[in-house]
Amino acid sequence: MPMNAPSRALIAEALRGHGLQVRGAWQPDARDALPRLAGGKVPTVVWMVGGVGSGLWPAFAASSFYADGLPDPLDRWSRAIGQALAQRWGGLALFPFDGPPYWPFQQWAARAEALCSSPLMLRLHPEYGLWHAYRFALALPALSPDDAPAVRLGEPSVGTDVCLSCAGQPCLQACPVQAFDGKGYRLDACAAHLHSSQGRDCMQDGCLARRACPVGTEHAYVQEHAAFHMRAFAQAH
Ligand code: B12
User: Fold this and answer.
1) Cis-peptide, bond into residue 101, ω within 30° of zero
2) Rounded to whole angstroms, how far apart are CA atoms 215 and 134?
3) In angstroms, how far is the first alpha carbon of the chain from the final one?
């Protein structure tokens, strides 16, 4: 098998020590306007890589990136891992935080596995709920023959919209400043709250609206991980 066609199992193995997971794959076409790979090759498959729950937290928190005091440690940690794997397999790593313009990670993610939109505008996974996010995508020149029949490639998201049938939609009731109305997100209201003393709960334990979702609560971020994201978010806004 060519070195540039790692199987899903091999990619998963390379990610395990970092606490990251393969989140499915999709097959790009010209409309996706992806960059060419080394040697002018067109990418054949894009593997989505992300974190589920706080799976990445122990590895990231133990890394030099977390401790070095420089800005954006999680993004720099992701870039180091993504670029090393891309180089190993003759591909390219694409990152959710490179932009604007940003790569449409949420649309890509829905092509790789079954997800639905949520009133919080985060994608909801049937098992992990809102407790998952993406660290990079690996665009590779070839798909391993081991995977061809097994991976979900470019199918539209299926399944019922879990949020539409959710009784009471607690996520929309939980935000102390009504930052969400199911159609938009009032970033200013959210950020002002986080900077006030009333925002301590969200800052310490994570967004109250996200925590109100009844799906996948066993995957909720551990306190340190939640606080890390909230701090990064509040510092930027
Ligand atoms: C810009 C951005 C933001 C901005 C949003 C500004 C705005 N109103 O658009 C700000 C800074 C507010 C933000 C905040 C957060 N974000 Co953000 N953000 C992004 C980023 C970098 C780019 C989005 C974008 O413009 N994409 C370009 C368009 C073309 O791509 P797209 O796939 O079509 O994405 C859009 C649509 O899918 C749409 N959308 C998604 N769901 C729904 C649902 C409805 C009803 C509607 C109308 C639209 C809609 O929103 C997306 C952005 O406009 C993405 C990473 C990425 N590259 O996608 C993360 C991303 C969307 N964010 C993410 C997260 C986790 C957060 C935070 C929770 C972070 C935190 N504090 O922990 C917060 C909270 C936001 C919230 N609750 O809504 C995750 C979501 C993971 C998931 N499960 O879906 C992403 C994918 C990053 C990642 N590494 O995984 N974010």
Assistant:
1) yes
2) 19
3) 47
Average pLDDT over residues 85-108: 97
Residue 110 Cβ < 6 Å to ligand 1: no
> At 89, is the secondary structure helix, strand, or coil?
coil
pTM, two decimal places: 0.94
Of 34, 74, 105, 171, best ligand 1 pocket probe by most atoms within 8 Å of the beta carbon: 105
Residue 13 DSSP class? H
Dihedral pair phi/psi, residue 189, rounded to 5°:
-65, -45
* 120 contacts 180 by C-beta, under 8 angstroms: yes
What pLDDT is attached to residue 147? 87
Q: Check: CB of residue 95 under 8 Å from CB of residue 78.
A: yes
Distance of CA 153 to the CA centre of its chain: 18
